[in-house]
Amino acid sequence: MPTQERIALPSGVTITTLRGSRPGPTVSLLGGVHGDEDEGVLAVLRVLDELRASELTGTVHAVAAASPVAWAAHSRVSPLDGENLARCFPGTGGEGPTHHLAADITRHLINGADLLIDLHSAGMRYRMPLMCGFVSDVEAADRSCRAAEAFGTPLIWAHTDPVPGRSLSVAAELGVPAVYAECSGGGGIRQDELDTYVSGVLAVLADVGMLPDHGRLHKRKEPRWVYGSGDLDSGMQAKCDGLFVSAVDAGDIVDVDDEIGRCYDYQGHLLDVVRAPRQGMVMFLRRQARTLAHDVLFVLADLTPRQE
Ligand SMILES: [Zn+2]
Question: How far is the CA of 270 from the centre of ligand 1 (A)?
Fold first, then answer.
């Protein structure tokens, strides 16, 4: 059985470390980087529970919730400084509490790890399909790709560029293979998505030799692949305040000019018909109707890799 250690750091994050009886790789798990995403928090806690009763080789570090104050407030950003932890990595760009958190996670969980797994979801205001993503054009891409395939989601998003501030971008800078996962969000947790997250992490650990296989790696279908930037801040924005009505769902494939949704003002007048600027898969879609100007309405992934 693994031994367990818990360390509370001054930034507020608590790291749980499980060490197996045999030396091996080090894998770090993050859940709840965004405080309105309970799926990753529960999945990390369930994985730790499974590992406590397993023949673990190597070391697993885990934080859940990674942003405890944001999680307590059920908020995407920290109520302490209004910062989004997933825009603050590696934590050297500021002095506030969220940057301290990012610096502690970078130092203790990402730097020196053999693999990072960061479990997100669409949060309260958006929808996303169940997917696993990684950055495909960096040094550790082969091992990240292998981990994404082992994770076993029906959809894999290969990103062409690391977007600054994310856990995956600092991992890329440090040469650490990394994957993240997303699922539907909305404040509930679907059993099938939780099961995929838990079995996905365990399958990745089995794939790198940290757990016995137990058939974990042999029961999945071929995933669908999508491509392009994973910068969810760069999607199409609302032009004005109002109510957004979506005409598609996360995971839908749309053609250029297909209707994505409509924006109405608070008197019910149609303000805007929002259309797809190109073909793609809807990866990130506004769930919450009440929308302010410049809120992101949707993000598309490419169906084929872009030709340079
Ligand atoms: Zn997130």
Answer: 31
231 vs 274: CA distance, rounded Å: 19
- Beta bridge partners of residue 135, listed in sequence order: 159
Question: In the chain, what percentage of residues exceed pLDDT 70?
Answer: 98
Q: What is the homologous superfamily of the domain 3-227 according to CATH?
A: Zn peptidases (3.40.630.10)
Task: Write down the pLDDT at residue 214.
Answer: 78
What residues sit around ligand 1, an ion, with C-beta below 5 angstroms?
A: 34, 37, 120
Query: Quick one: pLDDT at residue 77?
Result: 95
- Inform me whether the pLDDT recorded for 307 exceeds 70: no
**235-301 has the same fold as 3-227:** no
Is the pLDDT confidence value at 155 over 90?
yes
Q: How far is the CA of 1 from the centre of ligand 1 (A)?
A: 32
Q: What is the DSSP letter of 90?
A: T
**How many Å apart are CA 175 and CA 177, to the nearest integer?**
6
Task: Name the E strands within 145-195.
Answer: 155-159, 178-182
**Burial of 258 from C-beta contacts in 10 A (0-12 / 13-18 / 19+):** middle
User: Cα angle at 262 between 261 and 264, to 5 degrees?
Assistant: 155
> Would you identify the CATH topology of the domain 235-301?
OB fold (Dihydrolipoamide Acetyltransferase, E2P) (2.40.50)
Domains of the chain: which residue ranges? 3-227, 235-301
- d(CA 115, CA 60) in angstroms, rounded, equals 10
Convert the pLDDT of each residue in 274-284 to its tens digit.
999 999 999 99
